[in-house]
Amino acid sequence: MIIAVDGPAASGKGTIARALARHYGLPHLDTGLLYRAVAATVRQMHLDPTREADAVAACSFDDSLLADPSLRDDETGKLASVVSAHPLVRAALLQRQKRFAQQPGGAILDGRDIGTVIAPDADAKLFVKATSQVRARRRHNELVKNGADVSFEQVLADIRARDERDSGRATAPLTQAADAAALDTSSLTIEAAVARAIQFVDAQVAAKARQ
Ligand code: CDP
User: Fold this and answer.
1) Residue with the nearest Cα to atom 23 of ligand 1?
2) Separation of CA 36 and ligand 1 centre (Å)
3) Residues 147-174: pLDDT tens digits?
4) Which residue's C-alpha comes closest to atom 8 of ligand 1?
5) Ligand 1 pocket check: which of 84, 128, 146 to mutate, most ligand atoms within 8 Å of Cβ?
6) Is residue 3 within 8 Å of residue 201, measured between CB atoms?
C-alpha cells in the first residue's frame, strides 16, 4: 500500500505521516529532508541557491547528511523552498522518491507533490492543511521552545512567503490532488487529526478494493 501525504509548512503532515507509518507498519520518507539536504549543501559550498546549476550541483549530497538535525532549522527550510523551485533539482531527486514509493510492501511519503507527481497512483492520498494563522502559531511555539527570539508576525510572514513560493512555482507546485482527501487540522488535536487520517486512508483503500 502506498500512502501520499501532502500539505503546506506546519500543517501537521509530518506528524500525521509518522503516525500512519506506525499504524500501518510502513516505511516512511520525509521528502522535505531531501530538499533541505540540497539547501544545506548549497550553503556549505557557498553556492547561489537561486542559480539552477548551483542547486543541481548540490543534489549529490551524502546520505549521512539526512540524519543531521540542523536540516530541520527554519533557515534551511526557507532555503529548501528556493532550491526546490528549480525543475532540474526536482528531476534529480525524482527517481529516488519513486523507488522508495514503489518498494515491495508499500510505503508512506510526505511532501508537496507526492499525490500529484511522485506517486499519482497511490492507494490513499491526504492533503493536510490548516490556516496560516494556526500554522504560524505552531511554528512560533516550536521556535520559542527551542530558544529562538522571533516574533509571531515574522513567523506568519515567513509561512505566507513559503506558501506563495511553493504554490506559485511552475514545476510540481503545492496543490491538492483531485483524488486526495482534505484534512484540515486547524482545530484538531494531534490525536484527533491522526484518528481522522486513519479513517480517510481506510475509506480510500476500501473504495479502491470495491472498484
Ligand atoms: O516541514 P516543513 O513544511 O516546514 O518543510 P519541509 O516539508 O521539510 O519542506 C521544506 C521545503 O522543501 C518546502 O517549503 C518545499 O519548498 C520543499 N519541498 C518540495 O518542494 N517538495 C516536497 N516533496 C517536499 C518539500
Assistant:
1) 111
2) 8
3) 889 999 999 999 999 999 889 888 888 9
4) 32
5) 84
6) yes
Grid coordinates belonging to 24: 500501518
Among protein residues, the one whose CA lies closest to atom 15 of ligand 1? 81
- CATH number at 177 reads 3.40.50.300
**pTM of whole model > 0.85?**
yes
Give the separation between CA 211 and CA 204, rounded to whole angstroms.
Answer: 11
Radius of gyration of the chain (CA): 17
User: Residue 182 belongs to what domain range?
Assistant: 2-195
- Taking only the tens place, the pLDDT of each residue in 43-87 is 999 999 999 999 999 999 999 999 999 999 888 999 999 999 999
Q: Is 175 annotated as a binding residue?
A: no
107 DSSP β-pair partners: 2
| Terminal C-alpha separation, the chain | 16
